[in-house]
Design goal:
With 207 residues, the protein is of the alpha/beta class. Strands 5-2-1-4-3-6 form a six-stranded mixed β-sheet, sandwiched between helices. The longest helix has 20 residues.
Length: 207
């Protein structure tokens, strides 16, 4: 496996069909600007996962720095949207949650690496609302069943967070926007324009 490689993937649930796509792939040294100590902390968190607990827990005293570096690696994907927003052009946007995993039940051990799962709050809310025992959605590939299991856990964490009002230590919040022919937003998106406290690349955005 490639524990020092970090894959960012967007998870998609549309019309009863589940899939995911890589949006960024990076190396720990690039994410943390050659900060070996930070990279070592992330690798240590990955090695503490198991098949039953695939999500990585960042040390509380290091969480803000680590999470901000991870967000900043993803933020270029939203660059056109934020420039469009600044110019008063129509954009779409939404709040997303990130969760880091080092999934043991990967169908191919060689494909095992640190993965940053990206899921919209809307999707997580919809998954959390599924009745117990609901059949899984149609999977693009049968091998994606392990990822759907992770999404179910993320949705549970998200629902618990909303119920208790307590931040879940496994989830990181980030807002993303992109240009669109007409203004739109997800139901969970606060009113635009963004405030300085809600920028995608701000340490204050680490939830």
């Amino acid at each position: 496996h490639f524990v020092e490689h970090v894959n960012f993937s967007l998870n998609i649930l549309r019309d009863g069909r589940f899939s995911f796509r890589t949006v960024v792939e990076s190396h720990i040294t690039d994410i943390f600007r050659d900060n070996e100590r930070a990279g070592a902390i992330l690798v240590a968190a990955a090695r503490q996962t198991s098949a039953s607990k695939p999500f990585m827990l960042l040390p509380p005293n290091e969480r803000r720095y680590l999470a901000t570096a991870i967000i900043n690696t993803l933020s270029p994907a939203a660059t056109p949207g934020f420039f469009a927003l600044e110019r008063g052009q129509p954009v779409c946007g939404g709040w997303y949650r990130l969760a880091l995993t080092f999934e043991e039940d990967m169908p191919d051990e060689k494909a095992r690496k640190i993965r940053v799962l990206i899921a919209s709050e809307d999707m997580l809310a919809a998954v959390a609302a599924l009745p117990p025992g609901a059949p899984p959605p149609t999977l693009e590939f049968e091998s994606q069943r392990y990822r759907w299991k992770s999404i179910l856990t993320m949705a549970q964490y998200f629902a618990e967070e909303k119920t208790t009002g307590t931040r879940n230590p496994y989830l990181i919040g980030v807002q993303l926007v992109w240009p669109h022919p007409s203004p739109c937003h997800f139901t969970s998106l606060p009113a635009l324009p963004l405030t300085s406290e809600r920028r995608v690349d701000s340490s204050a955005n680490v939830l």
